[in-house]
Amino acid sequence: MKLVKAIIKPFKLEEVKEALSEIGIEGMTVNEVKGFGRQKGHTEIYRGSEYTVDFLPKVMVDIAVSDNVVSDVVKTITVAAKTGKIGDGKVFVQPLDDVIRIRTGESGDEAL
């Protein structure tokens, strides 16, 4: 099992969710986060004062999946979240030792 963690632009969340649903992904966890990479933030003027916005709003999507669908999930996210501009985000894939469904006590792939 793997934990796929994607950090994407907020306005792409609905597209990513729909694309994942089409390939059979039934659940995900979404968090609103802030961060920066090469984008390095930007400068804005607010009420006549200039200030730097270092951390830009992003959305982090966590999806626990079986090993046999990891590549499909990663490809689906990268296609759906891509704008072609800097700041599109990143996808991380981490090993997942175990998953337990609290309601039934099922574990492993059955809990997914």
Automatic annotation (TrEMBL):
<dbReference type="InterPro" id="IPR002187">
    <property type="entry name" value="N-reg_PII"/>
</dbReference>
<dbReference type="Pfam" id="PF00543">
    <property type="entry name" value="P-II"/>
</dbReference>
<dbReference type="GO" id="GO:0030234">
    <property type="term" value="F:enzyme regulator activity"/>
</dbReference>
<feature type="modified residue" description="O-UMP-tyrosine">
    <location>
        <position position="51"/>
    </location>
</feature>
<protein>
    <submittedName>
        <fullName>P-II family nitrogen regulator</fullName>
    </submittedName>
</protein>
<dbReference type="GO" id="GO:0005524">
    <property type="term" value="F:ATP binding"/>
</dbReference>
<dbReference type="InterPro" id="IPR015867">
    <property type="entry name" value="N-reg_PII/ATP_PRibTrfase_C"/>
</dbReference>
<comment type="subunit">
    <text>Homotrimer.</text>
</comment>
<keyword id="KW-0597">Phosphoprotein</keyword>
<keyword id="KW-0804">Transcription</keyword>
<dbReference type="InterPro" id="IPR017918">
    <property type="entry name" value="N-reg_PII_CS"/>
</dbReference>
<dbReference type="InterPro" id="IPR011322">
    <property type="entry name" value="N-reg_PII-like_a/b"/>
</dbReference>
<keyword id="KW-0547">Nucleotide-binding</keyword>
<dbReference type="GO" id="GO:0005829">
    <property type="term" value="C:cytosol"/>
</dbReference>
<dbReference type="GO" id="GO:0006808">
    <property type="term" value="P:regulation of nitrogen utilization"/>
</dbReference>
<keyword id="KW-0805">Transcription regulation</keyword>
<comment type="similarity">
    <text>Belongs to the P(II) protein family.</text>
</comment>
<dbReference type="InterPro" id="IPR002332">
    <property type="entry name" value="N-reg_PII_urydylation_site"/>
</dbReference>
